[in-house]
Amino acid sequence: MTLDVAGLVEHVMKAWLLLYLCQDSIALREKYHSIGKILFFLQTFLVGYWISESVWVNRILYGNEEGMVRDSSYSIVKLAVLMCCSFLAMDLFYRGRKLAKLYLLLVFYAVYEMSRMTLHSVWSVTTLSLLDHLYELIMVEVLDPERFVTIAVYLQNYSMWFFVAGYLALMYVMLKAYRRYLTASGPVDGIGRQGLWFLMLTPVIALAFDVSWRISFFRQKGAEVEFLYEEHGSMYVVVPVIALLCLSCIVFSRKIYSDLVQVEEQKNGLLFYRQQLTDMTEHVRELEQLYDGIRGMRHDVNNYVADMEQLLCTSAGEGQLPEQVRQEAAGYLRHMQQAAARLSLQFATGNPVTDVILNRKGQICEQEHIALEGELLYPASLGIEAFDLGILLNNAMDNAIEACRKIPAGGERLIRFRGYAKGRMFFVVVENSYDGHILPAGMDRLQTTKADAQSHGLGMSNMRSCVEKYYGTMQYEAEEGKFVLTIMLQGKEFCS
């Protein structure tokens, strides 16, 4: 009775631990909602319990009327059937790629098998030692045989509880550590195919070791039963050590992969950052030439208009031009002056880089019917590099424009910016309207609807890198249809 209850509890906890691993790793299908978890749990528990405890299954597998296990290798079939049923249930109730689900399933059963193997040796050695001690008491006639049988049954029953509780606790600890590394880098379904094949390597090796252990654990030859541990006593130490190593590799392979992904993202971010610098440098060079030409042309136009106005006035005074012609010509010249005035920069910051960025964003805002206003004076005395400030402004303005685009026609589309120095600190404040429906998920991960979401993420990463370079901060506030981004940078001298 005690063993039956222990087996029942074991299968309930196994099903719960599989559900625990799947939580936040893969998403339920929408049509099942929360009931999908209950159905998945029940399927895992019932199928696992039936396959493990059914006498009918044992008779089919072992080919005897008693359903007695005479060869440990037959247990491989049970494990394979159980894994197949669990995979079908996972594929039914959870969405996502099959390869990602298979990876999770392999991780779970590898952790399950390695945890059992680790505790099995400890349990076996402890139980056998106690039984040997009791047997010695019989030999010296301190304990009678009937009493020995009673104690042996009692010891076997209750030691099984310690074994089950021990390996389930170890499973929970390892799966919890694995989930910590898993959730830190996003859902499993977001891992690429090559990444999944790489991560599958450790659980597959662990399961291969488990299969070899099951094949050689014990077999019956006639009336004798050959046990691996009895033939090779060193297996009591070798098996749990290898099992623990496999457990560690399964868990930490996920951490290693997460670290590699972060390194790759940083590398891509650096390349993106360098590309931004290259593009910005080229834009600045071209626009500086253009603006120099525009300033020269504006100066020439103003001089030309002034000369023409003087000539018109002189000609009209001498009666050489009719008044109507003079007025029409004067009106035309005023239009030329207005056109020349529009050639001037909307925003002048004192630095070509920031001038180019703000005026380019101003042109975009004009096309998108977004009101853009503000002022910024480049803090040359603080030692803040123009390109770093340019990257902050470029990405902040892009995010503000994106938010304004989502506002329906007729709504207020407004972007305000300020840049000012306070002591050795420089502040950049960008305030924009937004529709109130999509809020930032955190400063590290702003939600976006951009088609190029990866570049958006790299842009935010570059902003954080620039802020950290100057030992600054980046904060936001979002309320009542207004989003405010505040960036604080410390001057180079202060940082040093």
Any chance you could write out the topology, listing elements then pairs?
Layout: H1 2-22, H2 35-53, H3 55-62, H4 75-93, H5 98-139, H6 145-184, H7 193-216, E1 218-221, E2 224-227, H8 228-231, H9 235-317, H10 323-342, H11 352-367, E3 371-376, H12 386-405, E4 414-422, E5 425-433, H13 453-469, E6 473-479, E7 482-490, H14 492-495
Parallel strand pairs: 3-4
Antiparallel strand pairs: 1-2, 4-5, 5-7, 6-7
Report what the structure shows.
About 4% of the residues have low confidence. This protein is α+β, with helices and mostly antiparallel strands and 496 residues long. A five-stranded mixed sheet has the order 3-4-5-7-6. A hairpin with a 2-residue loop joins strand 1 and strand 2. It has three domains: 270 residues, no CATH class; 54 residues; 144 residues, Histidine kinase-like ATPase, C-terminal domain (Heat Shock Protein 90, 2-Layer Sandwich). The longest helix has 83 residues. Helix 1 packs antiparallel against helix 2, helix 1 packs antiparallel against helix 5 and helix 11 packs parallel to helix 12.
Helical fraction: 55-70%
Largest sheet: spatial strand order: 3-4-5-7-6
Counting DSSP E segments of at least 2 residues, the number of strands comes to: 7
What spatial form do the alpha-carbon principal axes imply?
elongated
Report, as a whole number of angstroms, the end-to-end distance.
73 Å
Q: Please give the largest β-sheet.
A: 5 strands, mixed
Q: What's the pLDDT, averaged over the residues?
A: 77
Number of domains: 3
Per DSSP, the total helix count is 14
Structural Rg: 38 Å
SSE string, helices as H and strands as E: HHHHHHHEEHHHHEHEEHEEH
